[in-house]
Write a structure and sequence with these properties.
- The protein has about 750 residues and is mainly beta.
- The chain has 5 domains: about 1-75, no CATH class; about 85-240, Sandwich (Jelly Rolls); about 250-380, Jelly Rolls (Sandwich); about 390-665, Jelly Rolls, CATH 2.60.120.380; about 670-740, Immunoglobulin-like (Sandwich).
- About 5% of the residues lie in helices and about 40% in strands.
- The protein is built from 3 helices and 50 strands.
- Strands 4, 7, 9, 10, 11 and 13 form a 6-stranded mixed beta sheet that branches. A 5-stranded mixed beta sheet has the order 16-19-25-21-23, with no helix packed on it.
- A hairpin with a 5-residue loop joins strand 45 (about 670-675) and strand 46.
- The relative contact order is 0.09.
């Protein structure tokens, strides 16, 4: 039996909100251990929160009896939701004329709101519901950005917002006239920003003394079910300043492997590109790049090949990211016509990313990366990074011709029908593979991924990614490896496409994974027990017996430039009991850095021998990749996915958190001894691991924040050592971590 907690229906507009469940009995009708206590706790929480309980039971006897008792008690706590006061124009929340900016509005829930009585409808999307109104009469004529985006940041939890801005000659009596954004773009926004790129923001020139009406809707219908945790809206109003890196004379410097977050909001159109000057690569769409642009400078630290990538750009219909690389700084009156480039990219107007891969540069050569838009637009926020190029070498279309895998290796499926193989080595039997293909910078993202031996497919995927990494691109998690050499096989459905990047990590067998330790529902609970949930490999459970939907937090430390691969296996036992989970990567303050939750949730465990094109077995996975800008403590948050039905919202999982794609592991690594040296306070720390493997030695005084002491390489017999300094009377802890 499952008991589901749902929000109480509003008396005006019925709206049921699923928020959690518990398993009270097993398939034979026996009460699970602790079921009554958990149900009572759920009931108390539901009563205090204004929720009622409904039971969904199968069978007869004790299951029906328990369900009926809980329903009878639960109904006593039902209450109605009060609609936000700014549900209508008359109650619009007032934004102060002079800010100060940036200014955050109050946080309002859309539960209980509707579009009833609204005299406006979004021009960019007519399927909207649950409106909230705001009124703003600016004191200064200026360009303003009005954002509902969670990554602005705001406290908005409504996942898909739509926003428009109007003037009215007669106040709330109308008529309302939509105000265009910069460049004459419609004054209605949809799918611009946020962790899933489904939230709305506007950048618009507003006149002093004119009253503007801003309306925010949720995409959907007023009768949709809404969970309280996805019901809040908050706006951030800011005044974009002139960008400091408008031209290459004032370009911002980029450092190798260090991502930089920037924006083109408020930037001018300083550079434009001739249609035949730069777009000479396969899949490029020529563009004049007449939008707002900013410039970055990069000095190559050594002779080599480097890749330039921009991501997290707006995917609104009026945005189309264009990037191009210049060898010299052009001069003249803006917009300056660019006649030659070292490279350019404009593969897909629907993509949030573009990449110029593998540009050959001399040592100390300075180049200028221009981030632009295909046409005049309000601009966008984005992230940019320069990395060393590791490129696929053709021909690699058979296991025998496979390339050796490298972290973030770049490839292309060219020509149509091309297949790329990458060799992962021969991990021990039972090892688990985690892999993600980032196809967001490709012109088409529908890549296929297979883990294979030389004769059969071990696992297949084609669309487990979320939008940030190519919505139709693949990732896998926890693939059991049989021993012997294994490969990654990449192709694309029906057409040529690229570029893509590959990330992978290999972990020990499932039995080596650390068991999740509860309570870990909040960071505070985890930090209160610093010895728990440390490391990067966990076997955990979203617990069905908890009174609220289970959430699990895992902390880890990362260094600037690290590539973090977080990957979750939703069916670790491969027993066809899939969990549909979601992953969030958080900074030390709890801000969401990356959010992934794709709808794939099925398992198929049957394999087909002697077929390298098989589309089974497959298993649900969630995955993300993050390049770390500064050394910091980060958190991974595991919870049930938005697409999960109650049967798929609970269960076991296998979680990988790794840095820089380790493909080897040695379960026997251990720190063995501390030997006092002749110098006061100096000690030698000794350990043993795998032959010739490299280990990062770290130290801490509180088991929370770890600092690096340095890398050591084990000898042929696995021995390694490092000198450390320990002040008299102090206490320190040490650990050794395998590095690729």
């Amino acid at each position: 039996m499952k008991l589901n907690r749902i929000g109480h229906p509003n008396p005006v507009k019925p709206s049921l909100m699923w928020a959690g469940s518990l398993n009270a009995a097993d398939d034979q009708g026996r009460l699970r251990p602790g079921a009554v206590e958990a149900a009572a706790a759920l009931l108390r929480r539901a009563y205090n929160s204004g929720y009622c309980l409904l039971r969904r039971a199968l069978g007869t006897g004790v299951k029906w009896g328990l369900g009926a008792a809980l329903v009878a008690c639960g109904l006593g706590g039902s209450v109605a939701w009060a609609a936000a006061t700014n549900d209508t124009c008359a109650g619009a929340e007032v934004i102060p004329s002079a800010g100060p900016f940036p200014y955050l509005t109050s946080v309002q829930s859309i539960i209980g709101t509707s579009t009833n009585g609204d005299s406006v409808l979004a021009s960019c999307n007519d399927w909207v519901a649950n409106s909230l109104w705001y009124r703003f009469t600016p004191a200064t004529t200026a360009v303003y950005t009005i954002s509902s985006c969670a990554d602005a940041p705001t406290a908005t939890t409504v996942e898909d917002t739509v926003m428009a801005i109007y003037t009215s000659t007669n106040g709330c009596a109308g008529p309302f006239v939509e105000v265009p954004q910069l460049c004459g773009v419609e004054g209605c926004a949809d799918d611009v920003c946020g962790y899933l790129r489904l939230q709305a923001a506007l950048t618009v020139l507003l006149n002093a003394g004119t009253t503007y009406y801003i309306v925010v809707w949720r995409f959907g219908e007023d009768t949709d079910e809404i969970a309280p945790e996805t019901a809040d809206v908050q706006l951030l109003i800011s005044q974009p300043s002139q960008m400091p890196n408008e031209t290459c004379q004032t370009a911002l410097p980029l450092s190798l492997n260090i991502p930089v977050t920037s924006a083109t909001w408020g930037a001018r159109n300083d550079y434009q590109v001739g249609p035949d000057a730069c777009f000479t690569n396969l899949f490029d769409e020529p563009a004049t790049a007449a939008g707002p642009d900013v410039v970055f400078a990069f000095r190559a630290p050594a002779q080599g090949r480097y890749s330039f990538k921009v991501w997290d750009y707006s995917t609104a219909s009026y945005n189309d990211l264009v990037i191009y690389l210049l060898g010299t700084c052009p001069t003249g009156q803006p917009p300056v016509a660019v006649s030659a480039c070292l490279g350019a990219a404009n593969r897909s107007p629907a993509s949030s990313a573009e990449e110029i891969p593998c540009v050959a540069l001399a040592s100390n050569q300075i180049v200028y990366l221009v981030v632009d838009d295909a046409a005049c637009s309000p601009g966008s926020k984005f992230t940019v990074c320069v990395t060393p190029c590791l490129q696929e070498a053709e021909t690699n279309n058979t296991p025998a011709a496979a390339n050796l895998f490298g972290c973030a290796i770049t490839g292309m499926v060219v020509p149509t029908g091309d297949v790329d193989f990458y060799r992962l080595g021969a991990p021990p039997t039972g090892s688990r593979l985690f892999v993600l293909l980032d196809g967001e910078a490709a012109d088409l993202t529908d890549f296929d991924l297979r883990v294979t031996t030389s004769t059969r497919v071990l696992e297949y995927d084609d669309d487990n990614n979320d939008k940030s990494f190519g919505y139709r691109s693949p990732n896998m998690a926890g693939t059991p490896l049989p021993g012997g050499t294994v490969f990654l096989r990449i192709d694309h459905k029906g057409v040529a496409s690229g570029p893509y990047r590959l990330y992978a990590a290999i972990q020990p067998p499932l039995s080596w994974a650390q068991r999740e330790q509860e309570p870990n529902d909040t960071p505070a609970q985890v930090l209160s027990n610093p010895m728990a949930n440390l490391g990067g490999y966990f076997y955990g459970t979203l617990d069905p017996l908890k009174p609220l939907p289970d959430v699990d937090y895992y902390p880890f430390n990362a260094q600037a430039g690290d590539i973090i691969l977080v990957s979750l296996d939703g069916d670790p036992l491969r027993d066809n009991t899939p969990l549909d989970a979601q992953l969030q990567l958080l900074d030390s303050n709890g801000n969401v850095l990356v959010f992934v939750d794709d709808p794939a949730h099925l398992s198929q465990t049957n394999s087909i021998p002697n077929d390298l094109t098989a589309t089974q077995p497959f298993s649900p996975a969630e995955g993300l990749v993050y390049r770390v800008p500064t050394a910091s403590l980060l958190w991974v948050r595991v919870s049930a996915g938005r697409w999960a039905d109650p049967t798929q919202a609970v269960g076991d999982y296998l979680l990988n958190i790794t840095r820089n794609c380790p493909l080897v592991w040695n379960a026997q690594v251990q720190l063995q001894a501390m030997q006092r040296l002749d110098q006061p306070g100096r000690w030698k720390l000794s350990g043993r691991g795998g032959p010739h493997l490299s280990y990062l030695i770290q130290q801490t005084t509180d088991l929370r924040v770890w600092s690096d002491l340095g890398l050591v390489q084990a000898s042929a017999d696995g021995q390694f050592g490092v000198e450390v300094e320990v002040a008299p009377g102090s206490c320190r802890f040490y650990r050794a971590m395998l590095r690729p």
